[in-house]
Amino acid sequence: MAQMSLLQAINNALDIAMHSDDKVLCFGEDVGSFGGVFRASQNLQEKYGKHRCFNTPLTEQGILGFANGLAAQGHRPVAEIQFADYIFPAFDQIVNETAKYRYRSGNEFNVGALTIRTPYGGGISGGLYHSQSPEAFFAHAAGLKIVVPRDPYQAKGLLLASIRDADPVLFFEPKKLYRAAVCEVPEDDYQIELGKAEIVREGTDISLVAWGAQVATIVEAADKAQAQGISCEVIDLRSLIPWDRDLLAQSLKKTGRMVINHEAARTGGFGAELAASLQEVCFLYLEAPITRVTGWDTPFPYALDAEYMPDVWRTLEAIHACMNY
Fold first, then answer.
1. What is the CB neighbour count within 10 angstroms for residue 236?
2. Same fold, 2-185 and 198-323
3. Which residues are tagged catalytic?
4. What pTM did the predictor assign?
5. Is 198-323 assigned to CATH 3.30.465.10?
6. pLDDT tens for residues 212-242?
7. Domain positions in the chain
8. Cα–Cα dist 9/183, whole Å
9. Taking Cα atoms as reference points, which of 175, 129, 148, 137 lies closest to residue 300?
């Protein structure tokens, strides 16, 4: 075991993946020369050579077009998009090519070995072009998996599982946790199964659901609610596609109440999918409507960064509203 930040855990996972499989390639804007803007791939070029860890031109659609070609030819590319906000020039490549490659060929060929890493989310005063949470855009495209870790331990195990998965994976990394989140992480090789949520804390009165950096927010809200006599079950979704319907439904049937917290804007956010799907199977168990605490339906602000975030106090207010419904 070793103390690692989230960035160090990602770097360690990339190192292990490249060491264990020479078909794993790591590339993106500035990825090879100095490890990318956040240094997630630092020292990998020196260790594995310029043919396996390298810079690309500043063209997101080119990065993903190249990655699709590599994956189709049997390589296992890990492509980095420098910020999730800049993934949209590659939207066509991801949604119309990556996601549909296997289906359109009748499983004759695929790009399932592709992993796309990108930092996402707010909380760093990055303004409207460096703070977005675009996961819901891609959740609508069948053929992709979407994974979001909450801490270094999860990041390493989930990234290794994503790189080795048989389907293309979008791996969103909460950038505000890159250096802020530190915990004990095994130095050896391990994987965390994709598609499985985790109960971080058991409770009986209300279920709280989040992913990525927002898990820490609902944990803090659960602590404050506990001090007021409210027992909260805290769940980290971890994988958005596929998401763990069974675990969330089991929790909601137990507590009868649920608050879903995510950074992305409310309208069309992935929390709406969770709420709609769960009420179909848990309607008779509900003691209150499933509630969402989210970002606002505006561009991500610069001066009002903290006001945009779905914080502990908004979450606690939603918990009280559900309990008093």
1. 26
2. yes
3. 60, 130
4. 0.97
5. no
6. 999 999 999 999 999 999 999 999 999 999 9
7. 2-185, 198-323
8. 10
9. 129
